[in-house]
Amino acid sequence: MPREPKTKLGPDEHVITAWAESCAGPGWANQPVWVLVQDATGKLRIECLQPCHQSSDMLTIFGFSSLASIRMKAAATEIMSGWRKRRSRV
Fold first, then answer.
1. CA separation for the pair 84, 56 (Å, rounded)
2. In this structure, are residues 17 and 45 in contact, taking their beta carbons and an 8 Å threshold?
3. Which among 1, 20, 53, 84 has the fewest CB atoms less than 10 Å away?
4. Is the separation of the CB atoms in 30 and 1 below 8 Å?
5. Contact 74, 51 (CB under 8 A)
6. Whether pTM exceeds 0.90
7. CA 15 to CA 5: how far, in whole Å?
């Protein structure tokens, strides 16, 4: 059973999306799940679920979500960088 996260959803909030993202540096590594939350007014916030707060389902699909996030980020960067280049030519 995962430990209870410090941050919870309020009564007027819902999860928009969540994605896994591995990160590491010299002598450390982490596997957080990032959660995009929206309240009733439309305000957005991002929360971080550490591995000790993740469910067994989250831990099981972490690798797939992380890979999808890496590929989506690369594709978005490529397409948005192309827009910047096209705009600068006009």
1. 41
2. no
3. 1
4. no
5. no
6. no
7. 15
Beta bridge pairs of residue 76: none
**Rounded distance between C-alpha atoms, residue 65 and residue 21, angstroms:** 8
Is there a contact between 6 and 48 (Cβ–Cβ < 8 Å)?
no
Instruction: Report strand pairing: 23-25 vs 14-20.
Output: unpaired
Q: SS in 3 state form for 19-57?
A: EECCEEECCEEECCEEEEEECCCCCEEEEEECHHHCCHH
Positions of the chain with pLDDT under 70: 1, 84-90
Residue with tokens 């941050």: 7
Residue 5 CB neighbours (<10 A): 15
Closest C-alpha among 68, 71, 58 to residue 31? 58
d(CA 47, CA 32): 10
Q: What is the largest CA-CA distance in the chain?
A: 56
The DSSP symbol for 58 reads H
3-state secondary structure of 35: strand
